[in-house]
Amino acid sequence: MDHNEIQNHRQRQTELVSDSTRIMDASAANSRDATPNETEKIKANSAEFKRLAVQIEALEHEAELDRPLGRLTEPDDLPPADSGYRPRAQTGPRPRARARARVIGDSSERRVLASFRDVLTGARPMGAMSVGSDPDGGAMVPRQIDKRILDQLVDISPVRRIAEVVQTASADYVKIVNKRGASSGWGNENTTRTETDTPILAEINPPSGELWAYPTVTTWLLDDATFNVEKFIDENVSTEFAFQEGSAFVTGSGVNRPRGFTTYTTAATADASRDFGTLEHVAAASATVIAPDELITLVYTLGSAYRQGPGVAWVFNSTTASEIRQLKDSQNRYLWTDGLQPGQPASLLGFPVVEAEDMPDTAATNLAIAFGNWPRGYIITDRIGTRMIRDDITTPGKVKFSFGKRVGGAVTDSNAIKFLKMAA
Question: Which of 7, 20, 158, 416 would bridge with 373, disulfide CB 3.0–4.6 Å?
Fold first, then answer.
């Protein structure tokens, strides 16, 4: 067996390490994710590294270099020690000595290769990647962390609790909405059937973007802190994600983020006469005061089919809630009803209340109150889940935690959400 072959394979692995590390360092230095070409290059390096590792293992096994720590390989053709055999005096050139087994961990080269092997095989997350799956170099957040982040999103991001939430397989998710339009007719068995109108379909492609966070801590802090720094970072990032997406679902521009439902065009016209994508509002008489009758009108502006089932709710902020809570009917009864059990939401005119602090206050021309069937009216798209890449390679002495979550959102059925618009 040619020992040069093993050495050549190891040299090639070292070159692969250098090449992939250079790519990761470049992306980290510019605070960006790896490009598709860079990702493919690292994947190719990973495959080549693994192939060479298999060959090296086979060659080392053949040469009996996998003996326990510190043991030397011994010739297979020597007779047993108690056989009485004594070798003759050497008269010619001394034969080449058998190589000593290399001990794993006894060289810096092997330590570097072992460390990078963990990266390439997925045992150790790789920095500066954002593909989101282990084979492509990303690393999903461990299941318990991802669930904790999702729970935090639901607790703090109120729209997520009531809207339709779907897991998408790509960024090109499209929802088909039936605008109806089909017609029909009556007749008897002899009536001639003529062609009728067909349903009209529309495509909704929810705008999306990536929520990201990139905190960095020193290894000394991780070693010496008297509390769990990684858990602390995780909890803070999940809270920040929840606040940011909650705001985007209400007021988001739709550019690299979800489009908020308050950013759509509204009109004070009925469902049958409005363009698809335009939401309806009820005009308030005052710029700052809400009248009880306006709330009743708003409820019945929503079609009876939309007022059925779960997910029908009011949405407004705490300031507006404090004003509505004081409203009474003609018999001096409060319109607001507190939940009968802990954790049960309050209700207004029989429908639950969801407080979203990003909703505007009761001020001139503001869409201060929303009422609708939210599963039918608004969709949230989650791509994969939350990613967390723990990078302790690119900057020695520091550990970088790269969090990412791709999320989108858009109004789907423009007849399912109504607003109370304050006067000018």
Answer: 416
pLDDT in tens, 209-243: 988 888 888 888 888 777 788 778 878 888 888 88
In this structure, which amino acid lies at residue 264?
Answer: Y
pLDDT at 63 over 70: no
pTM: 0.60
Does residue 317 contact residue 363 with C-beta atoms inside 8 Å?
no
Q: How far apart are CA 275 and CA 354, in angstroms?
A: 28
Whole-angstrom Cα distance, residue 369 to residue 254?
21
Tokens read off for 45: 């390096």
- For 342, phi then psi, to 5°, come to -55, 135
Q: Are 181 and 199 within 8 A, CB to CB? A: yes
Q: Give, in degrees to the nearest 5, the angle at Cα 338 between 333 and 343.
A: 175
| Banded pLDDT at 30 (limits 50, 70, 90) | confident
Sheet with 312-316: list strands edge to edge: 266-267, 279-283, 417-421, 367-373, 312-316, 351-355, 347-348, 336-337
Question: 118 phi and psi, to 5 degrees?
Answer: -60, -40
Helices (H), 210-347: 219-224, 229-251, 292-301, 318-324
**402: number of CA atoms within 13 Å, CB side?**
24
Q: Is 270 exposed, middle or buried (0-12, 13-18, 19+ CB in 10 A)?
A: exposed
Distance separating alpha carbons of residues 385 and 144, to the nearest angstrom: 12
- Report CA Rg, the chain: 33
Q: Which long-range contacts (CB under 8 A, 24 or more apart) does 223-230 make?
A: 230/401
Both tokens of 228, joined, read: 């769990």
